[in-house]
Write a structure and sequence with these properties.
With 354 residues, this protein is of the alpha/beta class. It has one domain: TIM Barrel, CATH 3.20.20. It contains 12 helices and 9 strands. Strands 1-2-3-4-5-6-8 form a 7-stranded parallel β-sheet, with helices on both faces. The protein has a two-stranded antiparallel sheet with strand order 7-9. α9 packs parallel to α11. The chain starts with 8 loop residues before the first helix and ends in a 38-residue tail after the last helix. The model has no long low-confidence stretch (mean pLDDT 93). The structure holds iron/sulfur cluster.
Length: 354
């Protein structure tokens, strides 16, 4: 059974009619909610079961240690302070810049559901009690969303808050998941997405393009799979090789080749063409700052990359979803060649003795 998305497809159709080449999340939000929204990153000092020994003590091969080192200066200025203090400081800054009218608390470094429910409730309540916060976006792993936590989050949706879960999915190919030591399977991803949707919560998948030993065809198949499991939005990134990570060691030893700029642009365009037109696009790239980054050598800053992607889509004369198709349609189930049967390769009258 195909799991339903929660998005408003009519609004997305409107965007395409007006010339948008992909389902741009920011514009979709403004039209469906009536205001501009910005996500404020919040570090509530979560750990990760892939670092602390519960699943492994090595982390994902590309993880720079819980991901706390990646963010804007305004985020670092208040890291370690209370949830409320982090929100106050950053909301004041971003409102001053005219970035948005309302804000969502984005719990993101590490695994933001890796605590007992009672502790999570306290943190999430502290965030939504802020007068300018309209909801929560929670970054976590697909194997860390038990129903007890989803029940609590569903409660917020019933009180009128927006709730999104951002799943660190990265790929829908098991051999890659093993290679990068994520320590969960594909089954957890599909199961988590279905249960999150049943609780009325939106799902945004994080997908990395350029993971080791993954072919372009597999990355495109990831677009097709996430389209049918009911994901509402996606964030797409190139794999960033950060200093001190295990992938950095593979890169230095010549065992990992980072994705090139034109390769990434073309791959994202192929990915978008094969993605359902109704999956919202939250990001098309990501940066981690020069201090941390070893590779790729090109500028991965999202505005630089998204403009090139739009240019390439225009050059191709395509847009998101143009190649999205699942199997043959009813009309295509009409046999070609007037129904001529192929000549059997083996003479069926020859008996087989073994
Ligand atoms: S799940 Fe996230 S925080 Fe945990 S090791 Fe992997 S990338 Fe790092």
């Amino acid at each position: 059974m195909r799991i339903k998305q929660n998005v408003n497809k009519d609004v997305i159709d409107e965007l395409y009619e007006e010339g948008y080449l992909y389902a741009a999340f920011g514009e979709y939000w403004r039209r469906t909610r009536g205001y501009k929204m910005f996500k404020i990153p919040v570090d509530a000092d979560f750990l990760c079961p892939n670092w602390d020994g519960r699943l492994s003590n090595r982390g994902c091969t590309y993880c720079p240690g819980l991901g706390k080192e990646v963010g804007r200066p305004t985020f670092f200025e208040v890291q370690g302070k209370s949830v409320r203090a982090q929100l106050d400081h950053q909301i004041e800054y971003h409102r001053g810049k005219g970035v948005a009218e309302k804000f969502m608390a984005y719990f993101y470094p590490a695994t933001n559901t890796y605590r007992r429910v009672t502790e999570l409730e306290k943190l999430f309540e502290e965030a939504i009690s802020h007068p300018d916060v309209i909801g929560l976006s929670i970054g976590t792993r697909p194997d860390c969303v038990p129903d007890e936590i989803l029940d609590v989050l569903e409660g917020y949706t019933k009180r009128g808050y927006e709730v999104w879960i951002e799943l660190g999915q990265q790929t829908y190919h098991y051999h890659t998941i093993e290679k990068i030591n994520r320590r969960h399977g594909i089954a957890e991803c599909i199961d988590a997405t279905g249960r999150i949707k049943e609780h009325g919560i939106f799902v945004c998948d994080h997908i990395i393009l350029g993971l080791p030993y993954e072919t372009p065809g597999e990355m495109i198949e990831t677009a097709r799979i996430l389209s049918v499991v009911g994901v509402d939005a996606v964030k797409i990134y190139p794999l960033l090789v950060m200093k001190g990570t295990r992938i950095a060691g593979e890169f230095s030893a010549g065992k990992y080749r980072p994705i090139a700029f034109t390769e990434y642009i073309n791959l994202v365009c192929d990915f978008l063409e094969n993605l359902s037109p109704y999956v919202l696009i939250q990001r098309l790239s990501k940066d981690c700052g020069l201090q941390l980054k070893l590779a790729p050598e090109w500028n991965t800053f999202r505005l630089n990359v998204s403009s090139r992607i739009e240019k390439e889509l225009k050059r191709r004369g395509t847009k998101q979803g143009v190649r999205y198709k699942m199997g043959l349609g009813e009309v295509e189930l009409f046999p070609l060649n007037g129904g001529i049967k192929p000549v059997p390769a083996i003479n069926a009258s020859v008996s087989c003795n073994f």
